[in-house]
Amino acid sequence: MTQVVFENARIFDGYSADCAEGMSVLIENGTIREVSDRPIKADGAQRINVAGKTLMPGLIDCHIHAYFSDLNAKVVDGRDAPYRTAHAVKKLGHALDCGFTTVRDIGGGDFPLAAAVADGLIRGPRFFYAGKVLSMTGGHVDYRTPTEQHHTHGYCSCGSMNWGGVVVDGVDACIKAAREELRRGAHCIKITASGGVMSPSDPMWMNQFREDEIRAIVNEAVERRTYVSAHCHPVSAIRRSVEFGVRCIEHATLIDAETAGWVAERGAYVVPTMSVIFVSMEVGAKLGMAADSIVKLKVAADAAIQGLQYMRDAGVKLGYGTDLLGSTYDQQCREFEFRSEVFTPLEMLRQATSMGAEILMQDGKLGCVTPGAHADLIVVDGDPLKDIGLLAADGRKLDAIMRAGEIVKNRLD
């Protein structure tokens, strides 16, 4: 039996701004067994003196794409699986070093990568994945350019599948694709419900999929006791997705105040992604981003921060997401920097811990410091409730990182 005791800790539990001091936490076989304001007796346990620093849940990034090795999705497709996997190894290792003990790959991630992480072949965070994104013909994950004419129907044909998505049209095809991704172990289903920045043939304002198609996909997820998440930029796509049963909205970049209130009333979740917008604005042209994508990116950038303010004012349930592509994955911690224009440190800490766990349907197991939860923990050299920049320092201000009870970093001995 492996036991670790963290002693003399200030604890942020994932929820409360009132951080108890002088606390002890017992870890046993990968699980938090006890949280106490008194010394914990555990003969033979490894003891780590937190010395008044902050012990808190490991961070959760609810929007990554581990295989997305370039800003051009077609380039990613052409590089094939070995290159994409090598990229994923570096990206996931960097995320863990930054204190992200859980990630949700919301497009492209698969069972082999999840198994490699779980079996210790790849050093990385706990890995949830949505499998291939479902897109209609000409939708956001149909990466063919307007000049390409071929299209062969059928789930496994080269014309309707790429590394990140599958192109489906009609209720029957949507049902089959959703079932196939769930069969492959997907933790949820992702659809593209609007146009996007990186796709070559659809404007951002475009609504995608019919009502019957979205409802059919949602039904398949519900029957599997999971949920659908939808890529959405404009208000129209956000509203119809939530109305049709989608549980989580990705991006919501162009949301307005009225729609934010409407989403909050219905209890849907939103994962904004400021990093991909503002980092791509900084380096996208240099890294080869297409000119039309840069034009669309500017539209997103002009509205993004105001959209955060609308959602904060309305009380929308928000998760932490980054969506960084290609070599920009090393900017993952800057999401705290961008969000700090609107949110307090406590709000951001909740977004990156307990709210992320809710989105993953893992509340009480992840994103918290409580008995029975997974022992995914970080020790911060300081108080992130006063200085969120401690978490935006690419792991340099983290003295310890624990994932599933395994100590992956320890500067406290």
Into how many domains do the coordinates divide?
2
Determine and state the CATH class of the largest domain: Alpha Beta
Sketch the topology as an H/E string, one letter per element.
EEEEEEHEHEEEHEHEHEHEHHEHHHEEE
Based on secondary structure, the structural category is alpha/beta
Distance between the termini: 21 Å
SS element count, helices: 11
> Judging from the principal axes of the Cα atoms, what is the shape?
globular
Radius of gyration: 21 Å
Give the integer mean of the pLDDT values.
Answer: 94
**Total beta strand runs:** 18
CATH superfamily of the largest domain: Metal-dependent hydrolases
Low-confidence stretches: 153-158
Helix content: 25-40%
Strand proportion: 15-25%
Q: Based on the structure given, which CATH architecture of the largest domain is correct?
A: Alpha-Beta Barrel
| The CATH topology of the largest domain | TIM Barrel
Protein name: Amidohydrolase
GO molecular function: hydrolase activity, acting on carbon-nitrogen (but not peptide) bonds
Keywords: Hydrolase
InterPro entries: Amidohydro-rel, Metal-dep_hydrolase_composite, Metal_Hydrolase, Metallo-dep_Hydrolase, OTAase-like
The gist of it:
By secondary structure, the chain is α/β, with parallel strands linked by helices. 31% of the residues lie in helices and 21% in strands. Strands 1, 2, 3, 4, 5, 16, 17 and 18 form an 8-stranded mixed beta sheet that branches. The chain has a 5-stranded parallel beta sheet with strand order 11-12-13-14-15.
